[in-house]
Amino acid sequence: MAIMTKTASTPDRPVLVLGATGTLGLPVVREFGAAGVPVRALVRDTDRAAAILGPQVERVPGDVRDPDAVRTALAGCAGAYLSLRSTEGFEPADSAELIGLRNVLGAARHQTLDWIACISGAGDLARYAHLPPLRIKYQMEQLLRNSGLPYTVFKPTHFMESLPLFVRQGRASIPGRQRRLYHYLAARDYARIVVQSFVRREHIDSKLTVLGPAAYTMRQALEIYADICLPRKGVGQVPLPLLRLLGTIGGDPQLRMVHTLFKTFAQVDSETDDGAEVIVPEAPLRLEDWCRLQLTTAAA
Q1: Domain limits of the chain?
Q2: Is the Cβ–Cβ distance between 85 and 51 less than 8 Å?
Q3: Considering only Cβ atoms within 10 Å of each terminal Cβ, which end of the chain, N or C, has fewer?
Q4: DSSP class of residue 274?
Q5: Rounded CA separation 291/161 (Å)
Q6: What is the reported pLDDT for 10?
């Protein structure tokens, strides 16, 4: 298990970040900036992106599904990092993750990239490629592996930033039983791993499983979050069949996606992949400290 440490070496050409304004993409953008690496972002709304990213990030208007927009954004870049997610279901043909990656790989044929990387999922995805949410991640890993380009696949565990998503109307609830253990990871620690790998040109043509400092079940992690950020509220549980029923009756595709996703989590028995190195950030943020930081940030 490796511990990543920081380095001062930086490139001159920018890195293109797709998904730069997202919960997991934004910390990577900020860490690139802190390391002195110029960042370019492909964004659909340049004004909104400017408010989120700040003036130091170059913004190129366009959509990851548009090959011409991706080619324009990638021109002159040293590398590309994809932090995309599927919002319209788990069919590969509709996946912004897969479409975006294919467009980047297509554009890369017209230039020289030092590095291309994406966020995937924890665990041995080859074993679980039959599960819809993981099929897309596995196909992305295969595309990068077969691209002939220098690549890194980052396979983080569950993020601490996911915990507020379990809260509705002031109460936290877990979909299903979810008995698996996860080494919850702070997005800012994950971002350090990504940027250091690029700057140091380490872990090329590799898969990296990225873990946080301590293992919890989803309920345990959410109870810690609730105790600190939602005192006296407690943590409930929503049966997965009920989620599926509500999504079907109500015609709610998001509920159906949640049901599919958490049913998948319950079936994957390990965060690790025999073909991936396991990395833990140096001095990672503990879950309790992350929760207290959320309170400080909300009060600011």
Answers
A1: 2-159+185-211+271-284
A2: no
A3: C
A4: T
A5: 9
A6: 58
Superfamily classification of domain 2-159+185-211+271-284: NAD(P)-binding Rossmann-like Domain (3.40.50.720)
- Measured at the CA of 271, the angle between CA 141 and CA 252, to 5 degrees, comes to 75
Chain center to CA of 25: 7
CA neighbours closer than 13 Å in the CB half-sphere of residue 206: 14
Sorted by sequence, the CB contacts under 8 Å of residue 284 that are 6+ apart come out as 185, 186, 189, 212, 213
Task: Supply angle C-alpha 185, 65, 108, rounded to 5.
Answer: 80
d(CA 37, CA 205): 21
The reported pTM is 0.89
Q: What is the pLDDT of residue 214?
A: 97
User: Residue 254: how many CA atoms within 13 Å on its side-chain side?
Assistant: 1
Give the mean pLDDT of 212-239.
Answer: 91
Residue bearing tokens 């999922």: 121
CA 296 → CA 221, 228, 229, 289, 290, distances in Å? 19, 11, 10, 10, 10
Pairing of strands 167-168, 151-156: unpaired
Distance CA 213, CA 99 (A): 34
What's the rounded mean pLDDT across residues 56-82? 97
**What's the pLDDT band for 85 if we cut at 50, 70, 90?**
confident
